[in-house]
Amino acid sequence: MTSERDLSVDRLIDDPRTRIIVCCGSGGVGKTTTAAAIGLRAAERGRRTVVLTIDPARRLAQSMGLTELDNTPRPVKGAAGPDGPGELHAMMLDMKRTFDEVVIAHADPERAKAILENPFYQSLSAGFAGTQEYMAMEKLGQLRATGTWDLIVVDTPPSRSALDFLDAPSRLGSFLDGRIIRVLMAPAKVGGRGAMKFLNVGVGMVTGTLGKIFGSQLLTDLQTFVAAMDSMFGGFRERADRTYQLLKAEGTAFLVVAAPERDALREAAYFVDRLAADEMPLAGLVLNRVHGTGAPQLTAERAHAAAQSLEENGADHESEQAEADVLAAGLLRLHAERMEVMVRERRTRDRFVSVYPDVPIVEVPALAGDVHDLDGLRQIGRRLSGTDDD
Ligand SMILES: Nc1ncnc2c1ncn2[C@@H]1O[C@H](COP(=O)(O)OP(=O)(O)O)[C@@H](O)[C@H]1O
Ligand SMILES: [Mg+2]
Question: Exposure pattern of 175-190 as b/e (b: 16+ CB <10 Å)?
């Protein structure tokens, strides 16, 4: 069953103008799975594709040959035939390593060494809120710049707040632009010796206070770090801004992934609004893990009623027949619950559609087990393209 407003993933990935697909959504909804499935499908339909995954589940990573975090794309064995034009490469984002690469590429060796060894750098690169998002952008920019790929499919970090990666450039900037940092930077920026001496008194006072709070070694480290980063961070901002522009450009498509539940769709609505506000090109909504049934004609009410009469039959006597009735009643109750879930999911979906009538949607059913191998990804890919209707 397809209609005008259905999202056509095949049309998207078959269009040579589509160069970047970004899968976003809140945590646990199936972003990584969707990104990998789309990448595989695109490769098998002839495109030279790379998937940038972030924290893939272990078994899925293994099935794609992603056993080590080496931060570069590797060919995925068993994906796309050797004779076809399509290829699938995959990588897992190593945030720290991406950060290191940026430092090494943009600072002279001595300064790079000072930065890399600085404890502030080490905690910033590993854990500063937003660095993962920022580094995903950085990596996307790098992959795009190589010109090697027909299509780059990007997974996004499981951000607590939606679309953090859109804010990453400005947040990284505001961290580095921050007031404490400006104060600490002051001595390094002043030219004359007299002024230097004068300023150092003030800074000495400030750092004296901060030193009591943070410890003076820590503070020295912070100063060293900021001084070293200062020479680069114009470059950081610039590249982040460029990648941000790339996301807005024609050739990029965003997919919002969500579960068919009220909270998840509320979050999805937020994503849709945010993308619109940033003028990011939204291709549609992937409604993942939608429930279905083999017996759609048996309603919840009828199943409950039938279960009840079977239970009443079985209640007052013991026999094999009564046991079978109780069992059948149990199955009918399960079916009824499933039907209730489906009705609820449908209603939630309809509510979303009434608010966002122009957002194309594709539904992917909940598969029986986890998606942890290429066949599982192929199955998801078929569902995404509406070619698998069982
Ligand atoms: N349609 C689906 N049917 C069954 N399991 C799914 C489906 N989509 C995702 N999963 C499973 O759900 C879990 C979370 O998916 P994942 O793609 O890692 O989510 P995210 O990247 O959004 O956190 C994984 O174990 C994955 O195998
Ligand atoms: Mg994920």
Answer: ebeeeebeebbbbeeb
Report whether residue 367 contacts ligand 1, using a CB cutoff of 6 Å.
Answer: yes
Instruction: Determine the pLDDT at residue 215.
Output: 57
- The torsion region of residue 108 among left (phi > 0), alpha (psi -120 to 50) and beta comes to beta
pLDDT exceeds cutoff 60 at 311:
yes
* Residue 193 included in any domain: no
Following DSSP, what letter does each residue of 253-322 receive, concatenated? Answer: EEEEEE-SSHHHHHHHHHHHHHHHHTT--EEEEEEEEE---S-TTS-HHHHHHHHHHHHHHHHT--SHHH
Task: Answer whether 74's CB lies under 8 Å from 65's CB.
Answer: yes
Q: What is the mean pLDDT of the segment spanning 43-67?
A: 91
Rounded to whole angstroms, the maximal C-alpha distance in the chain is: 102
CA 155–ligand 2 middle distance (angstroms): 7
| Residue 213 placed within a domain | no
| Among candidate residues 356, 346, 342, the one with its CA nearest the CA of residue 268 | 356
Would you place residue 196 in the very low, low, confident or very high pLDDT band (cuts 50, 70, 90)? Answer: very low
| Percent of all residues in the chain with a pLDDT value above 70, rounded to a whole number | 73
Average pLDDT value for residue range 327-355: 94
Residues 324 and 377 in one domain: no
The atom number, within ligand 1, closest to the CA of 27 reads 23
Question: Are both 60 and 141 inside the same structural domain?
Answer: yes
First to last CA, the chain: 11
SS3 (DSSP) at 354: helix
Give tens-digit pLDDT for 133-157. Answer: 777 888 888 899 999 999 999 998 7
Of 389, 376, 364, the closest CA to residue 36 belongs to 376
Report whether residue 291 contacts ligand 1, using a CB cutoff of 6 Å.
no
Instruction: Indicate if 318 and 373 belong to the same structural domain.
Output: no
Q: Is the CB of 55 under 6 A from ligand 1?
A: no
Nearest alpha-carbon partner for 377 in 14, 114, 37: 37
Domain interval for residue 332? 300-343
Whichever domain contains 259, its CATH number is: 3.40.50.300
